[in-house]
Specification:
This protein is an alpha/beta fold and about 400 residues long. It is about 50% helix and about 10% strand.
Length: about 400
């Protein structure tokens, strides 16, 4: 029997990665703690309030919270509301939107601008006043030296010009949704901090799944961006292949036969897309996945190659369509799919699972989830009307479910 595993957000909770609802609360806390994100924090609260109001109006439980992808998607839509086809039909947007986009310099941009200006002055003052009393006269002299240094340093001039250009552009274009766009950028940067796991002990409960997959030639797919599976493999000397190197060469995902295949359907927090080198063989612009070494003490700022938000799951940019194709192919050759910690909220993934169940009446779906109400999910309840015999529920958390599967294979 060929087998496949699909991991959702609930599979990473025991590794202390927040689930999609808890992540919203953590995101707000991190914005609140960031002095330079005051306006962005206000925007998050404003959008969350609107989404909660919408939930109440639809008869849903507002105390359940807001899914982080719904929050990101709403902020992103507000950033692009000027491009929306519905824009002309909306007489007036919420008055707070104009207040948020008041044409002010954001705290982040102001901080970067001040750092550029401060750098040459700080170097001169730090080196000059160790043994010298500060007076009005020498302060003026040192200030003049610092400004002279700035004026004659080409690199600093270029930095300053670039930053001033960004500030001016921000003020001019602020009413075009720029401040909301900046909020989405900072959300992604804080997402990186939330999902990256450094302590390998937090990933050990996944080890039995890797060993099981190795012995049974099973494939693991995940909807998560974190490094949970890779870290468990690394700390236990079990090779895991995400296929990103093959995609950069062929734009198709293939996996090393001596490794556990890991299909990261929504990308990975340590991937970054960059342009490939155009040649006679590849004359058209294309992209490669660049691996980011997050173990370095100082990690570069980058935009990770991930699908984040509810409305862009089928983006043609990057590797995501190829990942879906790899998932479909591996699923088609499997007879059993074990779903761990997935809430069945992704329509595209549900469509693939539904087609797979319909293709062969011997295919079995196993759902491992600690939430007993998971069976009430619209997709599962509808599918279960006719296919109940082929859907099995294990009301367990990820570690217990993995343990049960591993022990069953040994007996």
């Amino acid at each position: 029997m060929k087998e496949m595993f699909l991991l959702g957000a609930g599979a990473s909770v025991e590794a202390k990665v927040p689930d999609s609802f808890e992540m919203t609360r953590v995101m707000v806390d991190r914005f609140d703690a960031d002095h330079y994100a005051k306006k962005h924090s206000q925007i998050l609260r404003f959008v969350i309030g609107g989404l909660l109001f919408q939930k109440g109006g639809k008869g849903e439980n507002p105390f359940e919270g807001i899914n982080i992808e719904d929050l990101f998607n709403a902020v992103q839509l507000l950033a692009r509301r000027g491009e929306s086809e519905l824009g002309p039909f909306i007489n007036s947007w919420h008055p707070l939107l104009d207040e948020f986009e008041s044409g002010e310099i954001s705290d982040y941009e102001l901080q970067e601008l001040m750092e550029i200006l401060y750098k040459p002055l700080a170097n001169i003052f730090d080196n000059s006043f160790d043994n010298e009393e500060l007076t009005t006269r020498n302060f003026g002299n040192k200030l003049s030296q610092g400004l002279f240094f700035l004026r004659n340093d080409y690199y600093l001039q270029k930095q300053l010009g670039k930053q001033l250009g960004k500030v001016v552009k921000q003020i001019i274009s602020s009413r075009g949704g720029e401040v909301f766009h900046q909020t989405t950028v900072h959300m992604i940067q804080k997402l990186i901090e939330m999902v990256w796991i450094e302590d390998s002990s937090r990933a050990q409960y996944i080890t039995p799944l890797l060993k099981y997959s190795t012995h049974n030639d099973a494939v693991i797919a995940t909807l998560n961006y974190d490094n949970l599976v890779e870290l468990a493999g690394q700390s236990n000397s079990i090779p895991v292949d995400t296929g990103f190197e093959s995609w950069s060469k062929t734009e198709e995902f293939s996996f090393n036969s001596s490794s556990v295949p890991l299909i990261k359907l929504h990308g990975s927090i340590d991937w970054a897309l960059s342009g490939g080198e155009i040649s006679d063989d590849k004359p058209s612009p294309y992209q490669v996945i660049r691996k980011i070494n997050r173990e370095k003490k100082k990690v570069e700022t980058y935009v990770p190659a991930i699908v984040f938000g509810g409305k862009n799951k089928l983006t043609a940019k990057g590797p995501f369509l190829s990942l879906l194709r790899a998932f479909e192919q591996k699923l088609a050759s499997s007879n059993r799919l074990s779903v761990i910690g997935y809430s069945f909220r992704d329509e595209h993934i549900n469509e693939y699972i539904g087609k797979w169940l319909n293709r062969d009446n011997q295919n079995v779906l196993i759902i491992i989830n600690p939430d007993e109400s998971i069976s009430n999910n619209s997709f599962l309840s509808e599918t279960g009307k006719r296919g109940a015999k082929r859907i099995e529920f294990m009301i367990e958390n990820a570690s217990k479910g993995i343990e049960s599967i591993s022990h069953a294979s040994e007996t």
